[in-house]
Amino acid sequence: MRRLRTVLAVIALLLPLGLRAGEGLWLIQDLNSALEKKMRERGLKMHARAIYDMDSPGAGVADAVVSLGGRYSGAFVSDKGLLLTSGIPAEDFIGKLGDVGKDLLRDGFWAASEQHEIPVPGEKVYSLRRVYDVTKELHSLESQLGNREEAAHRLELAYSEATKLSCFAHVYWEGEQSYVLAYKIYDDVRLVAAPPAKCFYSLYRVFENGKPAVTSKSFLVSVEGAEKGAFTAALGYPDGTSRNISSIEYRYQNVLTRPLSSEMGRARLRILDKWIEEDPSVKSKYSGRVARLRESLEDDAASLAIEKDRGLQQIKTSKDEEIQARVDKDPSLQGMWRNLLEGLENSYGKILPGERDIILRNETLVDGTFVAGYLIRAASAASIKEATDILFAANRETDPRVEKELLAQALSEFYTNLDMSYFGPYQRWIQRRFGYNWSEAADYLWGKSLVSQPSMTAELESIDDLANDSLLKFLTDSPLVLYDINDGHASKLKDAKKFSSDYLKARYWAGVRNNEPDYPDADATLRLAFGAADGTVTPVTTLLEGLGQGASARWKAALQKDFWGRWGFRVNGKRHKMATTFMTDIDFADGMEGSPVIDAQGRLIGIVSGGTQSSVVGKRAYFEGSSGSVCTDIRFILWTLDRYAGQKRILKEFEID
Questions:
Q1: What phi and psi values does residue 611 have, to the nearest 5 degrees?
Q2: Which member of 115, 230, 391, 433 has the greatest number of CB atoms within 10 A?
Q3: Of 74, 231, 64, which is closest to residue 601 (Cα–Cα)?
Q4: Does residue 327 contact residue 506 with C-beta atoms inside 8 Å?
Q5: Is the pTM of this model over 0.85?
Q6: At what angle do helices 371-379 and 384-397 cross, to 10 degrees?
């Protein structure tokens, strides 16, 4: 993933920071006449029902859009279950195949026949079949049961039974809008093609009863490309965002949550970097973890810089003032939320000390080491075999030197930053015995833990015996209940959550009453983002510059040959150029990678590969200039299949206009 993102970062730097903004991440079921009008203003030439029609499943192109494992988006490109998605999941899968995987990452993998397509254990593909508005049903059930989660669960069971599909409830605006989404889930997923690293796409196939699944909808492909200003849209499953939080909650995050978590993360990263530099054997175990941690820290730092430059705090403050003004003018809303912003301000001010302590607890005891996760999962395993397998994995996949130093760092932060009233009896005993000698304390806890003694793990007879594990005992000796009861924090937090809930309800109704409905925060459901191509394409030379010395010589030679055949596009009447990626202003959020990008007629012209430089703010905001996507051109994908890999059998499955 890091290799792929490095090239995308180079590409994104070619772009201006502020493309014209798209229109957000709309629920596919919200594709109404008002939204269609906005899309037509941007250049849409097809009816909105041809994108998605709630009353006619299988009629719209959205029916060919899927979620891969709830992590990436994808598109069916044939009626034989052929699925086009991001290159990242294939890189992750191939990277776990050892030495064979190293070669495949360098040279690419191409299944010679259907029988050579590789099963991907545990992978699932979710295909949305129907969306049901259950707002009234949820309200009624919640009133009867007094519990929203239980009401949503009962609706899931009822709709699953009625539809014979896998149904999931999604609640927006604190219950003011609720849906049940019905999916067909494919759990026989096989890898078909994974081009050399930095090609930005991969192909999978879903099977049913041992045969390629017959899909009801697949995309028609266009090789015309996207000219400057041309309409583009992406359909995908963006991961969670918190764009609709109030300015007060946003300020709370910037004052407390983000700085504290970043500080702790940087301390862990320094330890990991040191050990990777000192000992190459550590790299194989921690490189992926280090990459994810570094990316998270870098993205958050970049996001903060852009948010500050664009004045996001003031943008959110102005939005809140607008919402409060609308509430104050509407008698039916005023009675419920007259002093909403004042209540938010007061309640969030009261929870700061207690929340600081909880963050410190989580960053030290839960996330301070990697081995903690293994221990906690083992303790909650369903069987002794599952527990021992987890513990053996901990022994294989971590390094005791690294974990002990991370543990010593966590001990230091835990004991020096938290009041002793939070310490459990075992934690107090450790402190009395070792004082401020964090290294000795870490050695002791590690040495008496099962994670350091595989022979003892093999003799484990009961999961209950894990309760006496020294390290697990230490990590769980400071339960959250201690933090909840301290200075009445639980009650203060409940008030803050109540005001946040009221804020979202007020935001929803203030928009609806003024005919300006907003879209809810992303939650890995099918969304539509639209805008226009900006005319910027990335030439092959830029891709070559980012390949590095480890890339396949054959792959480099093919790119340098500059021969694109029928997949190149015309310049001055000659068909001899190739665009690896193109840029649009359509909105981006994590999870959109692999999303199909369509033109004004609904034809597939590429897939989303990542966000532009400015899109890193997407988790917390959407505003003018905050969006943009880097999209892999379908012509480049088709060229790799045809001229580089010679995959005529796969190419024949694409329907090309």
A1: -100, 160
A2: 391
A3: 231
A4: yes
A5: yes
A6: 170
